[in-house]
Design a protein that fits this description.
Length: 132
């Protein structure tokens, strides 16, 4: 893909609400993305009342996927991020490996939830560094 066609694709998607890929009621808005020097994306995600995300992983073709979620607004109930082995987790900050750790969001009840989500992929691990 040429630089101009990649930019055109970005402009067609950026700053517009799109349905989330799990089909469970959440929406996402692409804010910024780039393939180089470090492939990354950033989204504003809204979870209206009744939405949820079932347990899943987000595989990548190569490398290690990292995601930093900043909780901007929490609902009165539900909407909890669930991840067995986050890298870091506090009330408003979640750092995890979506490719390696199953994660989910409980059903949002009593309001809506908004998250700023920034993801990036680090290069492939060298074969010599992998454990047998």
């Amino acid at each position: 893909m040429t630089g101009s066609s990649a930019f055109s694709k970005y402009l067609a998607l950026a700053f517009r609400w799109q349905r989330g890929r799990q089909g469970t009621g959440y929406d996402k808005m692409l804010l910024l993305t780039a393939p180089w020097p470090l492939p990354f994306d950033s989204y504003l995600i809204r979870y209206p009342e009744g939405s949820e995300i079932p347990p899943h992983t987000d595989p990548v073709q190569a490398g290690r996927h990292y995601r930093l979620n900043l909780i901007l607004k929490s609902p009165r109930a539900g909407g909890e991020f669930v991840c067995a082995t986050p890298i870091y987790s506090s009330k408003r900050i979640k750092l995890f490996r979506p490719d390696a750790c199953e994660h989910s969001v409980t059903r949002v009840e009593g309001g809506s939830r908004y998250v700023l989500s920034i993801g990036w992929v680090r290069g492939k691990e060298k074969a010599s560094s992998k454990k047998p």
